[in-house]
Amino acid sequence: MIDLHFTYKGSTSGTGTMVFYNQEANDTLISTWVRLVNRYKGRKSLYGYDLINEPQQIASPLPGSDYRTTITKLGDTVRLLDKKTPIFVAALAGDNPSGFNGFTPFSFHQYCL
Fold this sequence. Notes:
two-stranded antiparallel sheet; 2 helices; alpha/beta; four-stranded parallel β-sheet; 113 residues; elongated; single chain
């Protein structure tokens, strides 16, 4: 499992995961996943891709960089490069993961409910 546990520029207690508030961080997230998938796809020991661990979107995000748009863009990018490996997504606190274009399975922590 490749679990992206930390994203570029990290997070803050006031806003959350910076990829939703900083365009450079959002772009770097996409390019990081492109490099990871190209390096590891096709390996028999690869169980899945966990796109962002414990995402937090506390304040209003940049237009087009909100969680749902970002995670959908990430999933679509990964799926273009690797058609078979499962993609794991984590919902924001109180979010409904049912609309993630069929990305499965769903990853969550009990305190996100």
